[in-house]
Amino acid sequence: MVIATSAEAYVEPAFELALLSDTGTERPDNQDCCGQFIEGPDTAVFAIADGVGGYEGGELASRMCIDIMLQAYRESSPAWGAGKRLHRAIQRANIEIHQRALTVPELRRMATTLTAVAVENGAFTAIHVGDCRLYLIRNSRITQISQDHTVVAERVRMGLMSAARAKDHPDRGMLLRSMGHQLIVSVDRIQMPLVERDRLILCSDGLYNVIETPEIEYLTRDRDPESGCRNLIDTANRRGTADNLTCAIFKMIAPTGHKPTGSGWRERLRDFFA
C-alpha cells in the first residue's frame, strides 16, 4: 500500500523520489506500507513500514504508522526543523498504535517496523525502528547506514554469530524493537549531509533477503527512481521472495553545497563532528 500527499505544485525540484510496494509471490495480502510528503522543491519526507508478520493487525499497524506519521509531520511547524518534526511525528504514530492495541483485544499484538527519512536543505534525518533498511549510494558505493534491530543482527554485532550464518537463520526476523509495542519507542536517529547524485534506498526484508547489497546498487544504477524501484521489485519476485516487499529511492539531482566524502563510518563520523 502506498500513501502519498504533496504540498502546492512547484518547479525544478532538487530531487527525484519514487516508492513502490508489492504483495510478492506467496502472501495473500500486503502488510507493508509506504508513503511520502513533498513539502517543497528541496524538502520531502518518505517512509516504509512492515507490519509484524503473522500477528493480528500487522497490515493495520503499518498503514496507521505511515498515515499518522505523515499527517503529524504536515501539521507540525516548519520552524522546528525536519529532525524534530519527524521524531515527534513518529512518537505520535507509536502512541496511537499502542493505544489501539490496548483497546481492541484482537489487535493486542499489532506492531510494525518503520524507517523514515526527512530531507531538508541538502541534508537528511532518518529515524529507524526494526529491520527495514536504509542504504546510501555515493560514487557507486553502497553502504547500509541503518542497523537491523533483530536478535540475530545483535548476535552478529556481538561476535556471537557470523554474517553468513545469520543470513539464513530461522530467527533472523525476530525483532528487538517495533512501533506500538511500548508507549514510548526507542529509535535510532541518523543525520548526514547529501551531495549531488547521492541516492538513498529504503527497503523491507522481503527485498533484501533475496537481493544482495551490491546488487541493489547495480540494479538501480543509471535508472530514475521509478524504474529503479520497479527493477528491484521485479527481480525479487522472479527470485521467489517469500514476503511482501517495498522500496523507496531518493536521488539528489541538484548541488547541495556539501563536500563529497565517502559513505563509510569513518567519513560519517568526520561529517558529524565537523
Describe the structure.
Helix 1 packs antiparallel against helix 2. This protein has 274 residues and is α+β, with helices and mostly antiparallel strands. The chain has helices at 58-75, 82-103, 151-157, 163-167, 205-208, 213-220, 225-238, 265-273, and strands spanning 2-6, 15-22, 32-40, 43-51, 112-120, 123-129, 133-138, 141-144, 188-193, 199-203, 245-252. The chain has one domain (2-273): Phosphatase 2c, domain 1 (4-Layer Sandwich). A hairpin with a 2-residue loop joins strand 3 (32-40) and strand 4 (43-51). It has a six-stranded mixed β-sheet. Strands 2-11-10-7-8 form a five-stranded antiparallel β-sheet.
Annotate the secondary structure layout.
Blueprint: E1 2-6, E2 15-22, E3 32-40, E4 43-51, H1 58-75, H2 82-103, E5 112-120, E6 123-129, E7 133-138, E8 141-144, H3 151-157, H4 163-167, E9 188-193, E10 199-203, H5 205-208, H6 213-220, H7 225-238, E11 245-252, H8 265-273
Parallel strand pairs: 1-3
Antiparallel strand pairs: 2-11, 3-4, 4-5, 5-6, 6-9, 7-8, 7-10, 10-11
